Structures are given as C-alpha cells and as structure tokens.
Amino acid sequence: MAIASDPLTIAKWFLNKQPMTLKKLQTLMFYSYGNYLLFNNQHSWLSEKLFNEKIILKNGSIFIKSVADYYQKYGSDVIRTKKAIDKKLLNKKAEVQLEVILEETPLNNGMYDSIWNSHKRKILELSPNMIGLDEDSLELNDGLIHKVFLENYQAMMKSKQKVK
Asked: Which domain of life is it from (predicted)?
C-alpha cells in the first residue's frame, strides 16, 4: 500500500504546473482524490488514499482546510506562486495520476463547470439523508466519494460505447 501524500504538497504540485484560483485548486484536488480512490482500491476497501484530510462540500464548493488556510490570502484571485516541493511527501503513484488528472481536466472553459456540476449533483443525489456539519457544509466520506466517481465513470463508459 502506498503512503498517503501531503495535501499541501499536492496543491503546490498543481500550482507549479498551472496557476489557478483556490476554488479550482481544491476542486482539482477532489477530482484527484476521487480518481485515486477509484483506481487504486480494486482489491481493498478504500484503504489507499491520495491524502489524509477531510473533504467538505461547503456552500457548493470543495473545501480542504489545510489548503484553504494556506492560500486564503489570495481570495478568488489566481494563485501564481511556485513553491519548492519535498518529493518525499508525494508518493510516485500519486504523481503519475496527478499528471493524468491535470491533462484530462479542462480548466479554462465551460467544461470545467459542467464537470463539477455533474459531480456536485451526484453527491447531493447520493447523500440526501446525510447529516451535514452545519446547514451549508457536508463532510464527504470515502464511500460516498468512491460511489460518485464510480457512477460517473460507468456513465462515461456507457456513453463511449454508444458512440462506437
């Protein structure tokens, strides 16, 4: 089993590749986390995680506390800083998958919002009886995140088969 990576190291890794807002950064980290759960837990029940920190849906956006706290001074501005990364805090398997996520996620057009809205709808659909942290926040557990990504992945594969 791979050792979980540090969330701030992952955030810095993404920002070293491409400037983006804190909101997009946290959403991209959510995509990475969900895909990591989906593709690295074939034979064990969600024991392998990208990072060990709670992911919260807060006011309709993804919130990862350590990342939000570290980059809060940027507000909604684009973060254009490059930081040194301690490679010991980022496992190699994670780095390979982060490259794929960054390459396949359209950050600069309407597709980004469409993808996020699809995931958000699925989260709310699959968690109608979950009790939130407060009326505007919902902690996303690994089982829910895995289910959201699995169902979206299966739907995508079905649509690709129809095109053939």
From this structure: Bacteria
Looking at the DSSP assignment, which residues form a beta bridge with residue 58? 61, 137
Q: Are strands 20-21 and 137-140 parallel, antiparallel or unpaired?
A: unpaired
User: For the CA atoms of 141, 145, 147, 152, what is the dihedral angle to 10 degrees?
Assistant: 160
**pLDDT tens digits for 113-154?**
777 888 888 888 877 656 555 667 888 888 889 888 888 888
151 Cβ contact partners less than 8 Å away, ≥ 6 residues apart:
122, 126
Instruction: State how far the Cα of 122 lies from the Cα of 117, in Å rounded to an integer.
Output: 9
**Whole-number Å distance between alpha carbons of 127 and 144:** 8
Confidence (pTM): 0.84
Give the Cα separation of 94 and 100 in Å (integer): 10
